[in-house]
Amino acid sequence: MSRACVIGSGPNGLAAAIVLAHAGLQVEVFEAEAEPGGATRTLPLTLPGFLHDFGSAVHPLAVGSPFFSTLPLGDYGLEWIHGDAPLAHPLDDGTAVVLERNLDDAGQALGADGRAWRSLMRSGIDHWKEFAEDAFAPPLVLPRHPLRMARFGLAAFQPAQMLAKTRFTTLRARALFAGLAGHSFLSFDQPLSSAIALVLGVAAHAVGWPIPRGGASAIPHALVSYLETLGGTVHTSRRIDAQALRELSCPLTLCDITPKQLIAIAGEQLTRGYRLLLEEFRHGLGAFKVDYALSDPVPWRAPECRRAITVHLGGTFEEIAASEHAVAQGRAAERPFVLVAQPTLFDPARAPKGKHVLWAYCHVPNGSTEDMTERIEAQIERFAPGFRDCVLARHVSSPAVLASMDANLVGGDVGGGAINVKQLFFRPTLRHYSTGTPNLYLCSASTPPGGGVHGMCGYHAAKLALRRMK
Known about the structure:
Elements: E1 3-7, H1 11-22, E2 26-30, E3 42-43, E4 52-53, H2 60-63, E5 80-81, E6 85-90, E7 96-99, H3 103-109, H4 114-126, H5 128-135, H6 146-156, H7 160-167, H8 171-181, H9 195-206, E8 211-212, H10 218-229, E9 233-235, H11 242-248, E10 253-255, H12 259-266, H13 272-279, E11 286-294, E12 308-313, H14 317-328, E13 338-341, E14 356-364, H15 373-383, E15 391-397, H16 399-405, H17 421-425, E16 440-442, H18 456-469
Parallel strand pairs: 1-2, 1-10, 2-9, 6-12, 10-16
Antiparallel strand pairs: 3-4, 5-8, 6-7, 11-14, 11-15, 12-13, 13-14
Helix pairs in contact: 1-10, 1-18, 3-4, 4-5, 4-9, 6-9, 8-9, 8-14
């Protein structure tokens, strides 16, 4: 039986390991941290009994992943929990725009813009399986449904500012779309800033925005358990450097790491031309995150916010656009767009009885040293007066702290690299997963289709490696 090594146990590394193990290879995974999962871990960051998601918290792309959805992960402890609605977006008038799971209900709630919303989302929802397979495929692969993806691409390529202006007329629909577009880490005048908004919007209706019971760690734990049934092994607290890579002497190696790390670990095996291309790879904006232990639920002024696990804070489209533009220009926003998750409203076991956890972050320039804690709390307090009175403890994660806890989060970049036109097609180079060095592949979020807990980068890299072996 051939042997394969995977460096990194994030969702992409574990997906690659499972594909290789299915093919009959003896697979070993090497993880630098004490727990598998990369940014998909749940940790006791504040007080005893309070469990916080270190990185990702809400997982529409995991539950809707073309690969993960084929695995029997429910048999290995993964249970999805949905809120009453996928998303809430409070406004200064004391109300909130709620994105309903049912598309027709969502359209009705959006009033005059309901028809435009349904028109944007309908095709992807009605054909989610096929849509997801095409959307998460490498960019230069012909889609299985080219006309459908061409229509999606025409909308997805537009700057969010343009799409919102031409499709929506009401403040509420524009604000809702702005929150979705904010997940792109792009200024709203940039191409592709609509793409993630459309994917997440379609996913909200097609598969929901759920959380794993017990925390994000349930995803890698289920993947590891399944891998072990195939004969695979995961070694934790095993950081791989250049010397360790040589000592492994593995016939096939897949790396769930960034281009920067690949150069450091395997630079001597790479051609000079490929190394130069990797050095040109750009990382995206950083994240500044605060985890809270709370005595009570967040006292939202708009009660509708308690219906959703995810809450977007930023007010109008124009305000969120200004926030994201400032960060893209290298400045910390005075009133940042804040993404919030309140899992204990629907999964109370993550905190002591009657208590709660809250997950909140905003975007900052990559590597920023600015402390955004006060500005994040001011935005929460704006829509939930009295929030600070509920805070028992907080854990602050600057970009440097995030990178120290997961080396893939370079400068606080949680997406594995910037999203732009060049890096849509050249991610990290035109080779995508191949490094040009035989039997050495890259399978991280720095390869297509990019960031998110879906495992498809690892899946595609492993499939390519297997084809070349044959």
